[in-house]
Amino acid sequence: MKLPRRNFLHLAVGAAALPAVVRFAWAQAYPTRPVSLVAGFAPGGGVDITARLIGQWLSERLGQQFVIENRPGASSNIATEAVVRAPADGYTLLMVGSFNTINATLYDKLNYNFIRDIAPVASVMRYPYVMLVNSSVPAKSVPELIAYAKANPRKLNMASPGIGSGPHIAGELFKMMAGVNMVHVPYRGGGPALTDLLGGQVQAMFPGTVASIEYIRAGRLRALAVTTATRSDALPGIPNSCRAMRRASGSASARPRTRPPTLLTSSIRRSMPASPIRKSRRGLPISVARC
Amino acid sequence: VLALSPADFAKLIAEETEKWGKVIRAANIKPQG
Question: What is the pTM of this model?
């Protein structure tokens, strides 16, 4: 099925602002022991890297360890359910992103109610996706990739961090709009997917720039376009010509909705200008969320 | 940085779920590929 271009653009704009979420419970003195920060994908991907950045910063800020726990599988459903089932004592947090809302449609039955069981703390950041190909692919631009894919149906393997992940949906959008047939190969996270893209086992991917920028800068992977409305500050030489896929991914933190504002929430809001995430803005392809 | 209120968070999730739902249905994406 091929959607009208206008409809795609409308959907894409709406998808650009979703933050990721951290769930925790209120405690008067918080934290008094290490905190688990759960990432629903394997190490090395954008969610994992975001969790490690914010976890390190929170550890320094709040004087307790924030331990990153990777629980990959089912596009973060396993991690989300684990956090929902954990004691609501503020010591088990969850990184949340667009995949959580995708899952609401993708899966007929989930063992939790996301809105009821998860609540926000604060947005953390947003970053674009980028269309990448392995160096073995002769295409140097988006039109060239489309032409190559049309001439070689089902010869290109398209990696993603998992079924229902943002890069997966971005790739499916591209396939529909361009009228090309690439084979989707899901992994358990962006890290393993990028490893195979580097090795040539798969040929294309639409990852977030957080996890992929060093490979792009080193010339190990070829970036054809970023999917946002404007060029990325971190990748100024990469066009944003893929307007139909204009999307962005984000990260944030959250709190239970019946609880008062917490130390974690206020700490994030007050201190973000000095956080390593903002400091690394030029180094990593991310921006502090303003949604 | 934004600390969403419960109401705003629910609204955001509902909106995003609806939009992504349209894409997933259009692309006929299934959980097992």
Answer: 0.74
